[in-house]
Amino acid sequence: MDTELIATARLDLIPLSAAHAEEMATVLSSPALHTFTGGEPLPPDALRTRYEGLVAGSPDPSSAVWCNWVLQLRAESRLVGTVQATVTEAASVAEIAWVVGTPWQGQGLATEAAKGLVSWLGEHSVPTIVAHIHPDHRASAAVATAVGLAPTEKWQDGEIRWQRATRP
Question: Is residue 1 part of a domain?
Answer without folding.
Answer: no
